[in-house]
Queue: 3 jobs
Job 1
Amino acid sequence: MRDMRIIAVLLLLPLLLVGCVAQPEKAQVKTENQSYPITVVDDFNFSVTIENKPERIVSLAPSNTENLFAIGVGDKVVAVTDFCNYPPEVKNITKIGGFTTIDIEKVVSLNPDLVVASEGNGQQNVETLKNLGLTVVAFSPKSIDDIKKNVLLLGRITGEEENASKLVNFIDEKIASSRNEFERKPKVVHILWHEPIWVSGSGTFIDEIISIVGGENVFSDLKGWKAVSKEDIISKNPDIVLVSSGSGMGGEGNATYEFVVSELDIDAVKEGRVYIIDADLISRPSYRIVYAAENISDILRQFSAEER
């Protein structure tokens, strides 16, 4: 069971590929200022042609679901994964399995004209869906800029470019308001799991956010998400500990937080500077990552104010 929980956590984390948008083919159909068919290149480097404005969309990742609803096409989403829990409306939408445990037959039976996939689904599943004749666009953002690119691409292929642009502006505004510059950068560690201890290194959303809000990730010398020992964290002695919790952690509640406060002999624990961050916000590459940035920014501002 422990191994399954670890796998579930890691599958929620974005991997490293960058999406781009190709020039559209010659327009043949006009729909609400958007011309179809259009051709794009997704994060798997597949060239994908969308023949008409999508009316039946299947989302294979929580981040995709959140972004689809945010740009105004939630009413077109006919199926989502078991992990999709936001916005609340998804509770009543058909479920098609987990990240790698997609019910392929069920997806096909829903007759979608667009499937929005992610790296967490696995390339084999994506290719299987494509080989069955479905139109699949796959995302795998590694940075906030990549999230914005994916939002704009979603807007383009769904005919909601204006809403997508507004959402990107919202992301920019929230990130700008979260930026800090401190005389001394607070030392921060983000722990997303405790059996073993997994931390966020460089090239992750969390590392980027810590930098944006004026902190120093004590494990920025590591690449991606890595397992470390208690001694590694103790030797770094961070000022602030961020701990993932919530449904994104496989329903374990605050188990990782309890581990940190009971097992790590560091100043942050002794002085009450261990903070729980909703895993759904901090680990999903959707527009809602800005709320994690705001939360962490407030934590660092409070710490720096107390230091003065």
Job 2
Amino acid sequence: MRRSKRTYVAHLLAAAALVACSSDRPSSGGEPEPDGGAPAPAPVTAEAACEHQFRVRVERCTKGNLAPATMASARTRYVADCVTALGLPGSTRTADEVEACASALEPEECGVVAELLPACAPKSGTLATNTACNVGAQCASGNCELRAEGKGCGVCKDPAAEGEGCSAENPACAVGTFCVGEPNASRMTCKRVSYVAAGASCNGFDAQCRPGFICAAVDGAPPVCIQALDVGKECRDDAHCAKGTYCSQRSAQCTKRGAAGDACDATQPCGDGLGCDRESQTCAALTFAEPGESCGGSVACREGVCGQGTGAPRCAPIVEDGAGCLAAAHMTCRAPAVCVGGGCVMPTTATCQ
């Protein structure tokens, strides 16, 4: 087997970290049908659909790696943001569509790009070019170009069309297409991207393999999607190994990640929800430090990532909505806000005119 080229969907780089869990949705009654049949299902509410989406897109694959208090705070803010987005001027997405997307994601593996599933495909709105906007879903073009002042407002602009060039810095593409290619290449392209089945031809660009599979050429044949490599298989990259394993630098084989109590170091990582305790050099359950406190090893930050640089790493301060931030600096907006244009922004909170 030769290693397949590592590729990127640049349009989705900022968002894709979070994916999530199966849910036990409460059943709700409905009025009996006129003919006496089964009760008609009650229409889904925006709050219920957005809550379901949070569980599926966020909670499943981050549980154990986030402090419980942070998860609870993120849930409240995420759901509020999602509900508000449905009511923004020009938005055509409905609560039923949010619910359908969440249901489509439930059987998928962590790491799947939701926007590549038909039920979750990006959808354009009705606002004309040069109209003020918060998010792309309001715009007929599907693209809201945010202004530089960090207030969460932008203007609907026409993105690159299918087949046109794009870049990691300017990844906006027409609705239904994504900016694909190597981000350090001179040219990336807006293309329609889809997941292909196991055994089908792939290229890592517009024909992608689902999580748990890799695009690889075996014995000189054209590349196809094959099962990710299991423990003991020869590898060159962690991305080639199955979930819960890594590519060992020592053996060049896929190796199981450490369980609680196993020895660990920089070359022997621990499993999900664990970190390498700095004193015992064994895998231990993560604990969570507050802003300004020391972190590293099995001590993660309650919000954001552990600081790097000289001296003992510490957890960064949390920047509240609307306060100034530097995207390149080690600053943490309160989840799920992001640093845009020099300010921590929750996309739906600003009134854009």
Job 3
Amino acid sequence: MQYGIYISNYALNGDPRAFVELAKEAEAANWGGFYIWDHVYPKGGASKKVTDPWITLAGIAAATDTIRIGTTVTPLPRRRPQKVARETVSLDRLSGGRFTLGVGLGHPPDTEFEFFGEDSKTSVRAEKLDEALDVITGLWTGKPFSFVGRHYRTKEVTFKPRPVQRPRIPIWCAGWWPLKRPFERAARYDGAFPLGLEGRLKPADYRDMIEFIKKHRKMKTHFDMVCMGRSTGNSKKDAWIGDYSDAGATWYVELIMSGKLQDVIAKIRRGPPSI
């Protein structure tokens, strides 16, 4: 199992410099990943200071050497796929091949979509997500590519340079379990970032998700399963994380939503949970 930080982009007073500092601390403490939420206007947005994760990740990529970075998760239905293709390749090359793209429908649909005149229907967002992924992965190939869908159309174009990573930048797909369609989507890509529709997911849920994904997965490449939580620094109290590893989770990410920078740094300096 690998260990990462999973931090809201309205933590740390939304100060991008603080996020860069924290990522450097996480790398020094041997955390393996630093993943930022991608909200433009979360619930209670008027009272929250929000940093743009893409600009912030660029700063982190330039200031670190080994830690993986990414968005968890980007609501592709509110983005232009050609712009995301350019941004992701730039981040991948800037980081030397350390970028992971997390994607999802976007939540909450009212503040993230309706407030800005975007269609918040689940079916529409799902269609846009699937089409956007087709466009992005097509553009990543560096070969002539065209696309005609219900929501996006692309004349034949060739995007260069390609990402550093092969065969592509890893894509993690978010989904609410036990809903099945998000995990059918995830099976076509490189990882799943699951949330529990009926509460906290248990190790047995991970076994069920992995079995479901295996039935729908056609590729034999590596597939990541992410679990999240809050550790204590006490190996006995954190032993539950090992249960998720045994169930097939490949990443544990430490959830950080708030707190003063120095307090969060102290937590991160403890290093990944010892299980």
